[in-house]
From TrEMBL:
It comes from Pseudooceanicola albus. The keyword Glycosyltransferase does not apply. It comes from the Bacteria. GO terms for molecular function: hydroxyacylglutathione hydrolase activity; metal ion binding. It is an enzyme of class 3 (hydrolase). Its cofactor is Zn(2+). Keywords: Hydrolase, Metal-binding, Zinc. Residues 13-170 form the Metallo-beta-lactamase domain. This is Hydroxyacylglutathione hydrolase. Binds 2 Zn(2+) ions per subunit. Thiolesterase that catalyzes the hydrolysis of S-D-lactoyl-glutathione to form glutathione and D-lactic acid.
Length: 254
């Protein structure tokens, strides 16, 4: 059976995800318990695993409520942030994996936003859960790491198969698109996508998940290696990491 994916809006602009497979029903991130519990009830699902990407409260404040509702729930998160997280049943690091066959889940270290941030890649299901590392049309602020560190993390994610579905953690896409147009105002794919995003938000529809192929065509943080992007920033000949850093600095003050 193919895995079923539910996108669950939480808080003001967060997302949690529920992935139902033949053996496991996984929740990825828990910004708050209420909407996740409601989605599980509506779908008739009992979760078996809760996977947390990083220590920020808007991704794990719902852990206690979900544990209370489902005492057998196995909660897992980044080993590098164990001291900043709710109690975990299993600590994860890059190279760890969960499940098998279509439910195989690989852990990817994506530090930058936080030092221990991890992503969850389901290669057979062609999904990756990136939270605040790679976002639709953007990337997370570099709070704890460095710009080169974040660039390397995004480069790992960009190397996944282009048909991968990117399940990111926030509804920031519309503002990200406005910024992206300041970097590549002539990018036809970006112009078209921005119009689609505006239409979706006007109707109250989420703009995530998104295909990695679309991110590669329109997300400036994944395009820092392109000479035309460097040229548009006045950085002809600069390294991709240097171009990325300039894009991130501009976004921080946008």
């Amino acid at each position: 059976m193919a895995l079923d994916l539910l996108t669950v809006p939480c808080l003001r602009d967060n997302y949690a995800y529920i992935v139902r497979g033949p053996k496991e029903t996984r929740i990825i991130d828990a910004p708050e318990a209420g909407p996740i519990l409601a989605a599980l009830k509506a779908a008739g699902l009992t979760p078996t695993q809760l996977l947390i990407t990083h220590h920020h409260h808007d991704h794990n404040d719902g852990v206690a409520g979900l544990r209370a509702a489902f005492p057998d729930l196995v909660v897992m998160g980044p080993a590098a942030e164990a001291d900043k997280m709710p109690a975990m049943d299993r600590l994860l690091a890059e190279g760890d994996s969960l499940g098998d066959a279509e439910e195989l889940c690989e852990v990817i270290a994506v530090p930058g936003h936080t030092l221990g941030h991890i992503a969850f890649h389901l290669p057979q299901a062609q999904m990756v859960f990136t939270a605040d590392s790679l976002m639709a049309m953007g990337c997370g602020r570099v709070f704890e790491g460095t710009f080169p560190m974040m660039h390397e993390s995004l480069s790992k994610l960009a190397a996944l198969p282009p048909e991968t579905l990117v399940c990111s953690g926030h509804e920031y896409t519309q503002s990200n698109a406005r910024f992206a147009l300041t970097i590549e105002p002539g990018n036809a794919a970006l112009i078209s996508r921005t119009a689609e995003i505006d239409a979706a938000r006007a109707e109250g529809r989420p703009t995530v998940p998104s295909l990695l192929s679309l991110e590669l065509a329109t997300n400036p943080f994944l395009r820092a290696h392109l000479p035309e992007v460097a040229l548009s920033l006045g950085l002809a000949g600069a390294s991709p990491a240097e171009v990325f850093a300039e894009i991130r600095r501009r976004k921080d003050s946008f």
